[in-house]
Amino acid sequence: MSDSWDKIVDSAKDFAGTVAGAAGDLYGKSKDYFNIKRLEYQLREKYRVLGKLQYRIEMKEDVAVSEKEELISAITTLREEITEGKDMQYEYITCEGCGSVIPEDAKFCPGCGEQL
């Protein structure tokens, strides 16, 4: 009886270790994914501000050249950080519904909710 019980306990420990490892991996992937999404949001914001700035330039408003250069530098940095983050993570696919870039093992698109 003791040997059977020991085998059950050992199996339970192995299973718990496997589950804990998978949970940790999922947490890490989720954290990385949401960090990339945060950077993508910041990038969209910078593009929006750059567009407004370019409009002001076209309308011959008084705009400091350094303002545009700072935005372009920030955009370049964000693009590099996003690319680096995606390269370090895992494979991605593009949602056919909305064009969002999402992890290949996703079941639903976080952008539009389409089942993948």
Question: What attributes characterize this protein structure?
Answer:
116 residues; mainly alpha; 2 helices; 2 strands; 70% helix; 5% strand
Low-confidence stretches: none
Number of helices: 2
Major sheet summary line: 2 strands, antiparallel
DSSP, total strands: 2
Shape: elongated
Distance between the termini: 48 Å
Radius of gyration: 23 Å
User: What is the element string, with H for helices and E for strands?
Assistant: HHEE
- Number of individual domains: 1
Q: What class would the helix/strand composition place it in?
A: mainly alpha
- The average pLDDT score comes to 84
Strand line-up across the major sheet:
1-2
Bin the strand percentage: 5-15%
Helical content band: 55-70%
